[in-house]
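Bench log, entry 3. Co-assembly request; chain sequences pasted below exactly as received.
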Amino acid sequence: MSWIDYVVLIGTLLAIALYGHWRTRRDYDLGHYLHGDETIRWGTIGLSVMATQASAITFLSTPGQAYESGLGFVQNYFGLPFALIVVCAVFIPIYHRLKVITAYEYLGQRFDQKTRLLGAFLFLVQRGLAAGITIYAPAIIISAILGWNLKLTILFSGLFVVVYTSVGGTKAVSITGKWQMAVILVGMAVAFGMIVYRLPPDLSFGQALSVAGKMGKLNPVNFSLDLSQRYTFWSGLFGGFFLALSYFGTDQSQVQRYLAGGSLVGSRFGLLFNAILKIPMQFGILLTGVMVFVFFQFEKPPIFFNQPAYNAAAQSGEAGKLPALQARYDSAFAQKQADLGTLTAAMQSGSAERIGTATATVAAGQDEIQKIREEVKAALKENNPKLETKDSDYVFITFVLKYLPHGVIGLLIAVIFCAAMSSTAAELNALGSTTEVDFYRPLIRPGATERHYLSVAKILTALWGGIAIAFALVANVVENLLEAVNILGSIFYGTILGLFLAAFFLRFVQGSAVFIAALISQTLVLVLFYTTNIGYLWYNVIGCTVVCLVSTILQKTMFSPR
Amino acid sequence: MKNPPACPEEGNAFIPVFGKWRNAYLLVIAFFVFDVVLFYAFGRYFS
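Structure output for the full assembly:
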């Protein structure tokens, strides 16, 4: 990175945070801190909802996911528009009517205090852990690639957010989220344009897509009914529906965003904006990853995308098979480039037979390269058993740093930090509010002054920030980072959603029945997680269904009024 | 406790752009169907 990149990066982050602080400089009361006010319009709500969901992991991991396995991940979002319609039609009117600050207050009013505390506790556990991952994920990748100190990167990005979130509260989070999302959208559009521009001059955009398609990367819709496949139309529609319903309907980090404006129309418009734009946006990010894949068919990519880790192993004196594997890789890539030349010539000729033969040859070359990469990963693992060998999270950042001009690099690193900060800010805002409203007020200090509660909310927000940073400093997350967050959410969301659906639709069910059902459901999901390999989106369906079914049975039997 | 009645802004109140909330929800579903058909055709065309 050059000084221009640092100016763009630091200038963007500081400008947004200072603007958020300036806009909230006169807001001193508890209402503003927890609710926001009517100056927050639907556009701000829509963009801040989007920014909260789009974490840095989205922009590091999603293009890498598309690079590895194509566009199929977009199906994960197929249930989202339907979930948002349900949230708009059912959840939002009730939250507005009851004027709740946290979603779990509603559980207390509908059932009882213990059910409210259980819902809030499950939220705090999963969101507290996720906040740590949200800070850790971009820091580990950016520090590795740029050679920054990991702990300092975590502290810089974490403390920056903690300060403006704990000082400014909900309104600051919504305002900064809007501008962070604007930077993200501009940055990703610039990145897509630059990738297309960097493709070989004799390869049209249509031919680039054809190359991706022939290599199996353009597979956005899969109607398979196989439950063990992670991303299908059905798992996305049903599992994704429950995941999104739980996330948008019951996760305080989102509920606080769309209740911020105080108007039902504003809340609904903000969510419907997301219902329409979320799927095309995710498709665009995945397509960016596919274009990076096409680019690296013509430009030799590193044999292992976490280059600092590879270089350290290669120079450690225990390189073992790595030099021989590198030589095989260079040779296989040169052969594949020749085969790709044959394929593009065949596509220009339009001969189906030639295209079929060339596609098979390129696919065989790609398989050979993939095999060599697997051997490299095995060799690296042998050299360093603790090394994370799944390198797809490093694909996009490698492309950005190596092939994009200065200034754009700074903008895209700013995109990653903006995304990290917007999600973390919303999470800390929600964690602080939930702890203050659902635990501190009723259990520790009921009846205190607003001024006291305001100070406590700020302290708790800062405290959760400290916990998230501490978790990030000691974290060692394995597997794909995006999936880690989604899996963690899916383990808890089903049960939480079950509590809310029972509250809304099973009017005969009372507190004790639903409380026991939620404990059974959460235990079952944890057992399934540790003992089976079903796609994680199904945990949302299972958890929610078990709460509704078991609470109904318990209410009709054990807790039936005689 | 029973679920509360709808809040004052709910119901058949006129809303900007869409007129009724039902129209807004139908538009969201129409966009979804369009997205899926487009993605499917896109995948088939280039594969």
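The longest helix of chain B spans residues 21-46. Chain B touches chain A through 28 residues (CB under 8 Å).
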